[in-house]
Amino acid sequence: MTLPATMQALVTREGGYANNPGPHIDALSDWCELRELPVPEPEEGQVIVRVALASVNPSDLHYVKGSYGQPRIAGGPAGFEGTGEVVAGKGKAAEGLVGARVAFVAPLGGAWAEYVALDHSIVIPLRPDLLEEDAAAQIVNPLTAMAMFDLVREAKAEAFVATAAASQLGKLLAGLARDHGIPMIALVRRESQLALLEEKGAAEALQTTAPGFAEAFAGAAKRLKPRVLLDAVADQVSADVFFAMPNRARWVVYGQLDAEGPRLPQIGTLIFTGKRIEGFWLTEWMRAASSEKRVGVVQEVQARFAEGRWRTDVTATLGLGDALAGLAKALETPDGKVMIRPGA
Amino acid sequence: MTLPATMQALVTREGGYANNPGPHIDALSDWCELRELPVPEPEEGQVIVRVALASVNPSDLHYVKGSYGQPRIAGGPAGFEGTGEVVAGKGKAAEGLVGARVAFVAPLGGAWAEYVALDHSIVIPLRPDLLEEDAAAQIVNPLTAMAMFDLVREAKAEAFVATAAASQLGKLLAGLARDHGIPMIALVRRESQLALLEEKGAAEALQTTAPGFAEAFAGAAKRLKPRVLLDAVADQVSADVFFAMPNRARWVVYGQLDAEGPRLPQIGTLIFTGKRIEGFWLTEWMRAASSEKRVGVVQEVQARFAEGRWRTDVTATLGLGDALAGLAKALETPDGKVMIRPGA
Hints:
The structure is a homodimer. Chain A is an alpha/beta fold. Chain A has helices spanning 58-65, 92-95, 132-136, 140-154, 168-180, 192-200, 213-224, 236-244, 270-273, 282-288, 291-306, 320-331; strands spanning 6-12, 32-38, 46-55, 81-89, 101-105, 115-119, 124-125, 159-162, 184-188, 204-207, 226-231, 250-253, 276-279, 314-318, 337-340. In chain A, the strands form 3 sheets. In chain A, strands 3, 4, 5, 6, 7, 14 and 15 form a 7-stranded mixed sheet that branches. In chain A, strand 12, helix 9 and strand 13 form a beta-alpha-beta unit. The longest helix of chain A is centred in the C-terminal third of the chain and has 16 residues, at 291-306. Chain A is globular and about 65 Å long. At the A-B interface, helix 9 and strand 13 of A face helix 9 and strand 13 of B.
C-alpha cells in the first residue's frame, strides 16, 4: 500500500509547559493550528496507523495548554487516543500487524492527525465485535476507571464517591461499582443527570448545586461510609465533601476542572482523622503496574465493551478543520465524548 | 503518706467538641477555671502522682478549645504532660512505684492539677540526672520529633523541611537532623531565629516573612531535594512551600497555627507529581507502634536529654492561678516552652 506524502494534522503552536490551569478552552484555535505535515515513516519496530477516529479527553486539553504532566512539542500533532488501521510497519513484528484494526495511546501525541507512527508493542489489536466509538475511547477513560476502581478495592473501601460523575469516566465507574457490589455515590451538577447515573449503576446520585446538598451528602456518607473520593473537579465542593467523609478517607485527585482551587480551613483535621490527599495519573500507574496486570485490564476493558456492559456515549464528531473552531462549543454538551475524525 | 482531701486544678468549663480552630487563646480564663476538687483515689493498677511541673503544648490549647482529636470532659482537669513523684498506688505494680520520680502523659488530661491518677503502666520512671524541665516536657514534643523523624527516614528523604522551626519541637528536630546527617531546612518567622536554628543543627534556615523567601526556598529545594514537609502551621506559606518541593514530596500536617487555612490552586499538580498531603498525630502513632519501639524511643529521648544533646528552653513558669490570667501573654514569647507549677 502506498501512503500519501503529506497529511493534515492539528499541531500545538507552542512547546513546553505553561501555567494555564484547567482543561477549559475558549477555542482550540487558541492553542492549535491545522498544518500539512509529511506522513511519518516507520522506524524499526514502528507501525503507521491511519487514524479512523480519535477521542478528546481532558488530558488532551491540559496538554495543548501546557498544563499536562509532559511538555508540549511545538509543531507536533496533538491527541493521545484513537483507533485506526495499521497500514505500514518496519521490522517483523510491526509488519505482521499490517491490516489490523487497533486502539492506541500515542505517548507523545499524534492521534489528531491522519497518520501516526507508534511502537508496535503499544498498539492493541481489537476484537472484531467492538464498535468504532468504543475502540476510539477504549484506553484513557476505561483504563483510568479500572485502575482507580482497583485502588478503591485495595483500600477495602465499603463505598466510594465520584465527582463529575456524568462524565464518560464516571459512568464507567458506576458500572464497575454495581458489578462488584461496592456502592458509588455519584456527584453531578445537573438534576437531569441523577437518573442517568442511577441507571448506570450508582447506588446514590446527588446534585452538588441543589439546596441541601451538604446535608444530603452527610446522610449518604453516614449510611454508606465512603472512604475514597475519586475527584475530577478539585473545587470547594470536592474539599467540603472530603472533610465530610469518615475518618481515614482518601481524596484522589485525577483532574482539575476548577482553576481557582479549594480553600482548606479544615486541613488541621488531617491530624486526627488519618485522611490524606493524593493524585492519580494513568501514565504513572501504567509505569508501576506489571505487564500481566496491564494486559489483563486491557482484555477486561474490551470484554466489557463487547458485551455491552460499558458503552461510549458520543455527543459530537468533528473533522480536523471543524475542531479548530467547533471543539469548544461541542465540549459544552454534557454526559458524553467528543470525537475527531481525521479523514473527514 | 497521707494525702490532702482536696486540691487545686485548672478545669475545662465546657465538654465535648467545638469549632474553635487554632491553638491561639486570648486568655486561658475563656476556656478554663480554677476549682477545688477532691484528690483522686487510686483505682486498681493506678498510681497517684503529685505533679511537680507540667508543660503547655499546642495540644493542650486545642483541647481546652474543643478542637483536639478527643472531646473535652466538662469540669475535668486539663493538661496532658508533666512530671512529679508517685505518692500512692493500688495493687502490687502500682505500689512498687511509690517514691519514684516519673514523667507522664495523662490520656484524659489532669496534668494541670496538684495530683493526678494514672495507670501505672504509662508513667515513665526517670533517670536521676534528668533536669526537671526536661522531665516535664519529655514526651509530647520529643516523641513527636522522634516519630516524625522516623517517618523522614522511612521515606528515604534526602532532606526535609520543618515549619515553625523555632518551636521546641523544631529545635529537637534540628538536633536529630544533624546527628543523623539528613539536612533540615528550617522555616522561621523572625530573622533573629535564623542563627538559633543553624546552631541547633538545621542545614539551612530561612525566614518566611523576608522578601525573596520564595526564591530562597526554591534554591534550597533544588540543592537539597527535601521530600517531606513537617508542618505545624498549615497556612499559605506551607502550601506554597509544598508545591515548590520536588516530585513525590509529602506534606505532613501535625499542627495548624493558622485558622484560615491555605488555598490550593495547584492541587491539580498532585496528579502528575506523586505528592501527597496527610496528617500526623502522636496518639495514633503510639497506638500503631510496637511496644518495643515505644520503649526504645523513650530510652533514646531520656539519653539525649541527659547527655545534653537536647535541652528544654523554658520561657516562663506559672502557678495554676497565674496561668488563668497570664498564660496567653507568656505564650507570646517565642522559642521556648511555658510551664505550669501546680504546687506553687
